[in-house]
């Protein structure tokens, strides 16, 4: 009887254990389902958010690309319009340039038809060395020339010339160009002609040095002038220190090097000594004019020639009274 009772008890215990296991299994299954559901919902939300974000990015990118495309189209339209405007402006400028060239050509033609071939409104009469000595135009023309400058007297001479609206020709020393570059620049700015008077003004070249040594000194002066006025500045006009008289081999060497020299046929005499009186300078010019049609007058604008400055207005007035026009010697001979 006791054994039967124990058996029933054990059987009931086993049933209870099985029921507990089933309940635990159901709870675990429920819990797992809930967890899986939560995970699924979370993952789905993440995916939806990513889709939305991706969609927004695509939309934004598309808008940006569309905007950029529109901007590019506008830029291209602007470029085309600008190019069209530029083309029209270029055509207009070309047409204006052609008109200007035609006008200049007509002016040049008119100038060449005159007796004096190289006349211009800015510089007055401009003649080459050969034209001056040929005298074919039969006009009375005075060429005022100044050697040995620039110096402290040069600005005074420039002021006098400017007052009379006259251009002159300045034969520059290389050493003086370095010492007074601002005066050399002013000579060019005012429309005067520039000639080369050698670098060192050594009259002892002739007889003591070779023609090639003389030419080298001329070239050295040319370099000094270009250092002041720029490498594009050109003049092949030269005056010998003391004149070229009886120096044929030097003249030939100079000509073979591309330079052209000129002397004078009238001088004011300021090189004879220091402080030549003003009246003597004026009278020297008056006495030498004679029957000359083209007069190339030698004067100096070096630092010791104060009386040359003083005499210049009277010399100009005298030449004007004799019916002379004024010209400059060309830098391109």
From TrEMBL:
Residues 140-327 form the NodB homology domain. GO terms for molecular function: hydrolase activity, acting on carbon-nitrogen (but not peptide) bonds. CDD domains: CE4_SmPgdA_like. Residues 83-95, 102-119 have a biased composition (Low complexity). GO terms for biological process: carbohydrate metabolic process. Residues 1-21, 83-119 are annotated as: Disordered. It holds the Pfam family Polysacc_deac_1. It comes from the Bacteria. This is Polysaccharide deacetylase. It comes from Clostridium tetanomorphum.
């Amino acid at each position: 009887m006791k054994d039967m009772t124990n058996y029933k008890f054990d059987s009931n215990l086993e049933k209870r254990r099985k029921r507990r296991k089933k309940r635990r299994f159901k709870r675990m299954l429920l819990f797992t389902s809930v967890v899986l559901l939560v995970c699924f919902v979370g993952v789905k939300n993440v995916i939806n958010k990513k889709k939305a974000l991706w969609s927004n990015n695509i939309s934004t990118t598309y808008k940006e690309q569309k905007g950029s495309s529109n901007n590019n189209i506008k830029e291209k339209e602007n470029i085309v319009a600008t190019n069209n405007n530029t083309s029209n402006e270029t055509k207009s400028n070309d047409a204006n340039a052609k008109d200007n060239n035609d006008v200049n050509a007509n002016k040049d033609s008119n100038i060449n038809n005159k007796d004096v071939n190289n006349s211009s409104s800015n510089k007055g009469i401009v003649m080459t060395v050969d034209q001056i000595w040929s005298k074919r135009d039969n006009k009375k023309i005075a060429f005022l020339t100044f050697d040995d400058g620039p110096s402290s007297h040069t600005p005074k001479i420039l002021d006098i010339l400017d007052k009379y609206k006259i251009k002159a020709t300045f034969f520059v020393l290389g050493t003086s160009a370095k010492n007074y570059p601002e005066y050399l620049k002013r000579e060019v700015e005012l429309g005067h002609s520039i000639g080369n008077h050698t670098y060192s003004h050594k009259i002892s070249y002739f007889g003591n040095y070779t023609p090639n040594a003389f030419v080298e000194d001329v070239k050295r002066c040319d370099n000094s002038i270009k250092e002041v006025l720029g490498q594009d500045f050109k003049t092949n006009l030269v005056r010998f220190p003391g004149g070229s008289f009886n120096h044929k081999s030097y003249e030939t060497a100079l000509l073979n090097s591309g330079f052209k020299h000129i002397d004078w046929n009238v001088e004011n005499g300021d090189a004879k000594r220091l402080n030549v009186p003003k009246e003597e300078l004026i009278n020297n010019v008056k006495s030498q004019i004679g029957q000359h049609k083209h007069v190339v007058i030698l004067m100096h604008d070096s630092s010791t020639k104060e009386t040359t400055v003083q005499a210049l207005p009277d010399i100009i007035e005298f030449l004007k009274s004799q019916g002379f026009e004024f010209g400059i010697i060309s830098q391109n001979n």
